[in-house]
Write a structure and sequence with these properties.
With 158 residues, this protein is α+β, with helices and mostly antiparallel strands. It is built from six helices and nine strands, in the order αββαααββαββββαβ.
């Protein structure tokens, strides 16, 4: 790749990242897309055996999810979903049918700071969250009206 094409590519990427910033609202799950497949029951049982038989986890007292297979299955039986534009993403239980997931409406929005990263977190029923991550600053516009009417929640991000 020559230098001119490289700079053109960098310019296009920076423009697309800038376009993603600005005013954001929680995504409509009706148009969300499942990114990866749900694990099969055989895969879950196989990885449970491998994960929970690791002695290092036992010695570090990190086996809470290994006490019962049901706990491990709840933790690992998930698939990644994205908003239609790919800006928000999150992990959703494979036990929740896609039709039910896509019918959920946002119940809240908040900004969470994690180190140098800001996360704009959209909440939905059943403890489901979809998150937008950025190093720029984010703020929920009019938090009082957002709390009263989650459908009206908007945030601005640099």
């Amino acid at each position: 790749m020559n230098l001119r094409r490289f700079f053109l590519l960098v310019l296009l990427i920076s423009v697309s990242l800038t376009a993603a910033a600005g005013s954001l609202s929680c995504p409509d799950l009706a148009s969300a897309v499942q990114v990866n497949a749900c694990p099969s029951e055989e895969e879950l049982q196989y990885t449970y055996t491998g994960y929970c038989s690791d002695n290092a986890k036992a010695y570090a007292n990190e086996t809470d999810s290994c006490v019962r297979y049901a706990d491990y299955r709840k933790m690992k039986n998930v698939a990644r979903w994205e908003s239609a534009d790919g800006v928000f993403d999150g992990y959703v239980s494979c036990d929740l049918p896609a039709e039910q997931f896509k019918a959920l409406k946002a119940s809240g929005m908040k900004v969470v700071r994690q180190g140098k990263l800001n996360k704009l977190v959209c909440s939905y029923p059943n403890d489901i969250t979809l998150t937008y991550r950025t190093k720029g600053a984010c703020a929920v516009a009019d938090e009082a009206s957002c709390a009263a009417d989650p459908a009206s929640c908007r945030a601005t991000c640099d």
